Amino acid sequence: MSNMFCDRLAAAILEKRSHVVVGLDPNYSLLPREITESWGSDAPSTEATCEAYRRFIFPLLEVLTEEAVAVKIQAAFFEALGWEGMRLFEEAVGEAQRLGYLVIADAKRGDIGNTAEAYARAHLDVMGADALTVNPYFGTDGMEPFLQRTRNQGKGLFVLVKTSNPSSSDLQDLVLGDGRLVYEAVGDLVQHWARESRGGRGWSAVGAVVGGTHPSQARQLRQRIPEVPFLIPGYGAQGATASDLQGLFGTDRVGAVVNSARAILYAHRTSEKPWLDAAREEAAAMRRALWEVSGGG
Amino acid sequence: MSNMFCDRLAAAILEKRSHVVVGLDPNYSLLPREITESWGSDAPSTEATCEAYRRFIFPLLEVLTEEAVAVKIQAAFFEALGWEGMRLFEEAVGEAQRLGYLVIADAKRGDIGNTAEAYARAHLDVMGADALTVNPYFGTDGMEPFLQRTRNQGKGLFVLVKTSNPSSSDLQDLVLGDGRLVYEAVGDLVQHWARESRGGRGWSAVGAVVGGTHPSQARQLRQRIPEVPFLIPGYGAQGATASDLQGLFGTDRVGAVVNSARAILYAHRTSEKPWLDAAREEAAAMRRALWEVSGGG
What we know:
homodimer, 297 residues, alpha/beta, TIM Barrel, 8-stranded parallel barrel, 8 strands
């Protein structure tokens, strides 16, 4: 098998018949009572919060291996615990990989020159994620250290194009003089950046973040940048459904993966089942729903 | 004195007669030989690299207190050392504040909703920086957790508007249908975000990152968003000079601060002086040159 990220992702999708990415967005106040009962409902010390997250994340990863192809680890929630949180972030990357997941570091980094190089090294080399979310605001030279790793190290990127939040329109939907919207112009840049890291199926290791909360814009982008795989946030708690995503997966079904965090992680809050069962059932239902709509091209 | 970041910054500028921000961009291969000789010229273990950075940064901070108003700590170079690097990052924030500097965490974070809240908490509450650089791509709702802290906690922001790198034109210089450039539209958003955190002099705690390598665009932005203070990178090693920056400081001289990293940190590489003297002399020369041009409005 090719070592390219896009090929590794495609193989995982087809093997598991799954487009599910589990978003690890740990939030102490939403954890199962079985985990927090040693410390109480208010957030305890940093050390204890890290330990609670560990007792939550690691068993969860164990039970989702058949349902999810990848884990998207949200750096912000670990950074908010300071360096001890970042140590746990590194542990979580390693544990998820050990269990066979592809790991997407959701850190939305971006900078210039040697600073961009340092971010690429941090997340893709040192912490060792398989892919990283990247902010495009700096343009091509800021992308280069990240792009190098898609060509030479089998890494993947997902560049922010159209984000899932309501205010994404403030900047991303502005209309350019040539008629394009800003996010379409960013999409065109991503397609350009993607040209040197194409895998065996024609997809690139350089992907795009496209919010599932904007289904018609997402379908237009699918046509516009046909070699760029999508990482789609906004499923579940943010409101996107499987049918909203029809048409985004490409004819070979591997052109998109879909992230859900809260709906899976905190499924126990609306279920009678034990928390791990609730999470697995939610992920399984999402997997089946997406597999079905992905067959429609 | 007001607790607002803009007022604290203005007071520091006028007291020290300085616009100098020292950028902490540690790079092992450029450190003084006195520091690296215990380990040799190749980068040693993470632990040893952190120790070398500590022996470099802390004495440097001690000798620059009269020359620099603020320290801009570049998160990427610490993240590239993993969690041990982030521990050093936190130490550096605390040490710089102990010595009386304002601390700008240069992390260029940005995300949506509760993720943006986690980044704001991480950098402004937990690690405790006075200000943070932020990426505007997500729009208003992604800014809100950061903006709250300018209103309620005396914190500052510098939002990326026009960055100093050549490829900043890829996205930032695209022309909108209404004739504005993308970075001008972002500047207008920043001015809007700034309206609720004005300090005593009329400046806002919400600032803008405007590259000194684009002097004419920077002057136009100065007119366009007159209450928004600038953090200007690109001085020194990246090519901007003091005279390029004339007109960016406002009539009261406190509307901009200027970052220099490599030219100060690694001044020993082009000097016969001991490394701390070389750094202090470089910062002092920068301070005097900027103080002079800042008098011109």
